[in-house]
Design the sequence.
């Protein structure tokens, strides 16, 4: 469960953002739509506490993130939040398998190869586990980053423009997989996008 | 999955720049190690053999040559001196012992040295099998000689003129092996020792033979020549040099007297060897400086390649931070990349320097019969390891500090 309350943030006195309150229960999904420059990524970074809000609060699974120390924030994020970025990024020197296991490792959790294989089979890249990530197509890479986001079974999945660089077929597939995976692990799914193709997929929408 | 594995993967991902950095490190360490090894072993060999010899008496010429030929058996002798005069000069209360040496012949490039028991005692060499030479044409051979030539007790051989093994053989007089020395790690290991009288005898035969062969051509001078020769062999016995030990350091004074007032030369090994080492030292210092420079360049190469790859890997770093990595963890991971290169360079450098030493030793054994094959790790090499590790870590630390300044959100959003 994720809930935000009166979040504001400013990069400079003239560039201030205040964001609508959102609430997303477990197994639910919220789509946040907005054009470029409306602070979509900023909002997502605030929700993930990659940025500290100027005021307001964010609660994930009954923990108020704004009350945590920076070190606690990092470990809380590692364990409870899975993030998918606009362009899939990986540690390019490592194999797909190692990139998945890295989510476990950095969150100080046991490295679960079976879960990685299971996810890979389910998301359709089981044949690529020993490849480097840059040998895969964009659609495949985005599916790997979904798998990486759910490796630790987080309570919240945040996706920043997950489909903007994908064609229609891959776009539909990625959205379906995102929803399916977050429901399976009982997470709240929040997707931030300007991609109008996603409008019809989500009933719960917030316009920035 | 752990930090070391990620570091290793990163190094493998950039094989060329890792190879360059590793190669430079290896090269620097190889040169330094090789210098250390050579320096130590030459120093040991030189000081072990010079121990207890305060002065060398020989024919006029280069004092260094006299020392090298008489003590180390690695240069040509300066010439012969009359035994009588040498004995007269060394009949001095300041002189404790005087060991006569006579050389000029060899067997399969091993030098045949005419001397007496004092020479053997001086090096504290012991006879392993058989006995020490006693009579004319008896020979006791060094351990290396026995090993290489396969000579055994009871075998006979004839020496050849000169020291390079290519001289004409003294066919008439055969040496008889009566004993083999235990290995002593001194110059004795590669010598064939025989009484002084053998050398005189051999050369007497030799000269006779020579004069006979020219007899026909020089009939007029025949008689005269024969006479000369006999005179020479019986009365003016010659040796090559004398190794001298003083009773006290004041003996040094004798050297000047001999050099000024006689036809002989007295050379002081301590001075000549210092001179030799200071000549060599210039080269050694230059090489060492070069090796340190190469190691520093290795450090710069690590720095540049890490700096460049970190620019490319900024997003990766931010990603790992957003996934829960601590900044110290990432910093450590980058340090490991420098450290791993240093360690690889160190290990390969040690191996290569040993190979280099063995090659050098083979060469030295062939030319000088000196073996330098102690390949154990020297204490100084741990210092080299320390320096290499320091260079690797420093070179990695400078760019890696950027991890602490990184703004995660901005880096992730920049893309």
Sequence:
């Amino acid at each position: 469960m994720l809930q935000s309350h009166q979040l504001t943030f400013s990069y400079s006195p003239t560039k201030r953002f205040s964001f609508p309150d959102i609430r997303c229960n477990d197994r639910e999904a919220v789509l946040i739509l907005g054009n470029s420059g409306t602070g979509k990524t900023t909002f997502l970074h605030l929700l993930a506490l990659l940025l500290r809000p100027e005021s307001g609060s964010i609660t994930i699974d009954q923990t108020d993130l704004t009350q945590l120390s920076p070190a606690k924030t990092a470990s809380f994020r590692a364990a409870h939040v899975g993030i998918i970025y606009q362009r899939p990024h990986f540690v390019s020197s490592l194999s797909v398998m190692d990139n998945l296991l890295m989510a476990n490792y950095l969150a100080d959790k046991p490295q679960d190869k079976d879960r990685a294989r299971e996810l890979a089979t389910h998301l359709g890249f089981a044949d690529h586990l020993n490849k480097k990530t840059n040998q895969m197509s964009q659609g495949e890479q985005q599916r790997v980053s979904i798998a990486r986001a759910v490796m630790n079974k987080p309570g919240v999945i945040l996706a920043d423009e997950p489909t903007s660089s994908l064609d229609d077929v891959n776009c539909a597939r990625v959205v379906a997989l995102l929803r399916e995976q977050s429901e399976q692990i009982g997470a709240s799914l929040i997707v931030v996008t300007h991609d109008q193709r996603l409008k019809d997929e989500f009933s719960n929408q917030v316009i920035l | 999955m752990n930090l070391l594995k990620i570091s290793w993967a990163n190094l493998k991902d950039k094989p060329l720049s890792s190879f360059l950095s590793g190669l430079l490190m290896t090269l620097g360490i190889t040169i330094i190690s090789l210098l250390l090894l050579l320096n130590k072993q030459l120093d040991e060999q030189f000081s072990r053999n010079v121990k207890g010899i305060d002065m060398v008496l020989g024919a006029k010429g280069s004092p260094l040559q006299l020392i090298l030929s008489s003590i180390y058996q690695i240069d040509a002798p300066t010439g012969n001196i009359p035994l009588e005069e040498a004995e007269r000069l060394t009949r001095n209360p300041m002189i404790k012992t005087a060991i006569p040496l006579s050389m000029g012949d060899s067997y399969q490039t091993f030098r045949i040295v005419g001397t007496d028991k004092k020479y053997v005692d001086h090096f504290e060499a012991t006879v392993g099998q058989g006995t020490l030479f006693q009579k004319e044409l008896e020979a006791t051979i060094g351990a290396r000689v026995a090993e290489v030539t396969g000579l055994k007790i009871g075998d006979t051989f004839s020496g050849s003129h000169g020291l390079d093994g290519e001289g004409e053989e003294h066919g008439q007089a055969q040496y008889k092996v009566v004993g083999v020395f235990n290995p002593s790690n001194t110059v004795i290991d590669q010598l064939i020792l025989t009484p002084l009288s053998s050398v005189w005898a051999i050369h007497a035969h030799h000269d006779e033979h020579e004069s006979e062969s020219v007899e026909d051509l020089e009939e007029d001078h025949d008689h005269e020549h024969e006479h000369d020769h006999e005179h020479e062999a019986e009365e003016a016995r010659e040796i090559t040099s004398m190794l001298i030990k003083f009773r006290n350091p004041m003996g040094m004074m004798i050297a000047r007297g001999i050099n000024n007032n006689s036809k002989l030369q007295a050379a002081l090994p301590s001075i000549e060897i210092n001179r030799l080492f200071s000549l060599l030292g210039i080269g050694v210092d230059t090489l060492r400086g070069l090796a340190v420079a190469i190691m520093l360049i290795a450090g710069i190469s690590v720095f540049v390649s890490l700096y460049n790859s970190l620019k490319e890997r900024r997003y990766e770093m931010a990603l790992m931070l957003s996934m829960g990595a601590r900044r110290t963890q990432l910093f450590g991971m980058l340090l490991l990349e420098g450290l791993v290169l240093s360690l690889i360079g160190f290990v390969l450098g040690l191996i290569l320097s040993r190979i280099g030493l063995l090659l050098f030793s083979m060469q030295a054994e062939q030319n000088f019969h000196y073996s330098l094959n102690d390949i154990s790790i020297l204490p100084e090499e741990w210092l080299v390891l320390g320096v290499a590790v320091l260079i690797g870590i420093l070179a990695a630390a400078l760019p890696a500090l950027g991890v602490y300044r990184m703004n995660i959100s901005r880096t992730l959003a920049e893309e």
About this structure: Chain A has one domain: 2-9+17-207. Chain A touches chain B at residues 41-42, 45, 48, 50-51, 71, 74-75, 77-79, 83, 85-87, 89-94, 98, 101-108, 111 (CB under 8 Å). The helical segments of chain A are 40-47, 70-80, 96-106, 113-123, 138-150, 168-184. Strands of chain A lie at 2-12, 15-18, 23-24, 29-33, 55-60, 63-64, 81-84, 156-160, 188-193, 205-207.
